[in-house]
Design brief:
With 132 residues, the protein is an alpha/beta fold. The chain has two helices and nine strands. It has one domain (25-129): Carboxypeptidase-like, regulatory domain (Immunoglobulin-like, Sandwich). The strands form two sheets. It has a five-stranded mixed sheet, with no helix packed on it. Strands 1, 4, 7 and 8 form a four-stranded mixed sheet that branches. Strand 2 and strand 3 (52-57) form a beta hairpin.
């Protein structure tokens, strides 16, 4: 009987890391602002990839959080009324970590909103100055 209990405990000890690893998740979080640094309340942030599709809204300070994501590569789409949409490809999620993605939206200024790709912060000014 003691041998069976010892074997059961050994098997359980061997399985715990495997079970925990299969449920490892990460998250994506950040802040959505306008080109002048203003908070964009209510912006919808949607992440898709790895057979996943989750959305969150920017709240309070323009912050958003999407958790419980399997490790992998995702795409982020940020939309808000009166702003051009922004698409961020190749957003990496690592298990046990939070990937930080801040997004700066540009006001649509009367024309129909269109989608543009994420750019490093230094390129946002270039994009605006050249009518992108």
């Amino acid at each position: 009987m003691m041998i069976l209990i010892a074997l059961a405990l050994a098997l359980l000890a061997a399985l715990i890391p495997i079970l925990l690893a299969s449920h490892a998740t990460g998250s994506v979080a950040g802040r959505v602002t306008g080109a002048l640094g203003e908070t964009v309340l209510g912006a919808v942030v949607t992440i898709s990839g790895n057979d996943t599709h989750h959305s969150s809204r920017a709240w309070g300070t323009g912050s958003y959080y999407i958790g419980d994501l399997s490790p992998g590569i995702y795409e982020l789409l940020v939309t808000a009324r009166g702003y051009h949409d922004i698409h961020c490809a190749n957003v990496g999620v690592v298990d046990g970590q939070e990937t930080h993605v801040d997004v700066m939206l540009i006001a649509a200024q009367g024309d129909a909103p269109r989608t543009r790709d994420c750019a490093p912060p230094g390129l946002e000014k270039v994009f605006r100055d050249h009518g992108g």
